[in-house]
């Protein structure tokens, strides 16, 4: 594809690097931005820059946050006795959208995948164990393993179960209303909400 401007071509190339966006969609978005007021485009650019430079990870659960503690960990309305372990922030958002869960979270930052060279030490597993040994230990009664039911997800859940078992906590997993091999972020809210409510003991 030939572009009327090298600047437009560069912008299209960068936008098309985003997941799910091809060159045609990227061009459409770039041309749309050109039609908008310059101030609106600058606001978009500034918000993206601020997001990239200022968003941090919650020091307790590793969810994305504007502050050292995310809004969930900082809230006194959340049930401190339950920690829901998830792969990443997208899963937190998916579960929160069900409005069925009021506990805390722990974001692993991925799942164990030998094929991709990701082992337990690459994930936030040690920090979860430290939470169970630290100040929160007396309050925590249950750990929910809300990890996508793929082969890698099951491997991760099995590893976590072995690490958590010595703490004598209730360990549960979301009910298998989520299809085997599926990802939590793509599950509909009703199914995901029921899976949280109908969680089962992890064997």
UniProtKB/TrEMBL annotation:
A Pfam family the protein falls into: RecR_HhH
Record has Amino-acid biosynthesis as a keyword: no
InterPro entries in the cross-refs: DNA_Rcmb_RecR (IPR000093), Rcmb_RecR (IPR023627), Rcmb_RecR_Znf (IPR015967), TOPRIM_dom (IPR006171), TOPRIM_RecR (IPR034137)
Zinc finger map (C4-type): 58-73
Domain of life: Bacteria
Keywords from the named record: DNA damage, DNA recombination, DNA repair, Metal-binding, Zinc, Zinc-finger
Toprim domain location: 81-179
Keyword DNA damage (UniProt): yes
Database matches in NCBIfam families: recR (TIGR00615)
Entry function: May play a role in DNA repair. It seems to be involved in an RecBC-independent recombinational process of DNA repair. It may act with RecF and RecO.
HAMAP family associated with the record: RecR
Family: Belongs to the RecR family.
Protein known as: Recombination protein RecR
């Amino acid at each position: 594809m030939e572009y009327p401007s090298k600047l437009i071509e560069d912008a299209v190339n960068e936008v098309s690097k985003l997941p799910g966006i091809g060159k045609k969609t990227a061009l459409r978005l770039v041309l749309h931005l050109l039609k908008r007021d310059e101030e609106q485009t600058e606001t978009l650019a500034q918000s993206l820059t601020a997001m990239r430079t200022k968003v941090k990870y919650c020091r307790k659960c590793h969810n994305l946050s504007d502050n050292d503690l995310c809004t969930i960990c900082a809230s006194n309305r959340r049930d401190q006795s339950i920690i829901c372990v998830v792969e990443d922030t997208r899963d937190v958002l998916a579960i929160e959208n069900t409005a069925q869960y009021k506990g805390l979270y722990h974001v692993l930052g991925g799942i164990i995948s030998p094929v991709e060279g990701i082992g337990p030490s690459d994930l936030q597993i040690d920090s979860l164990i430290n939470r169970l040994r630290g100040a929160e230990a007396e309050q925590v009664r249950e750990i929910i393993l809300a990890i996508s039911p793929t082969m890698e997800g099951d491997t991760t859940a099995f590893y976590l179960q072995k690490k958590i078992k010595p703490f004598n906590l209730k360990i549960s997993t979301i009910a298998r209303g989520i299809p085997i091999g599926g990802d939590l972020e793509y599950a509909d809210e009703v199914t995901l909400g029921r899976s949280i409510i109908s969680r089962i003991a992890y064997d």
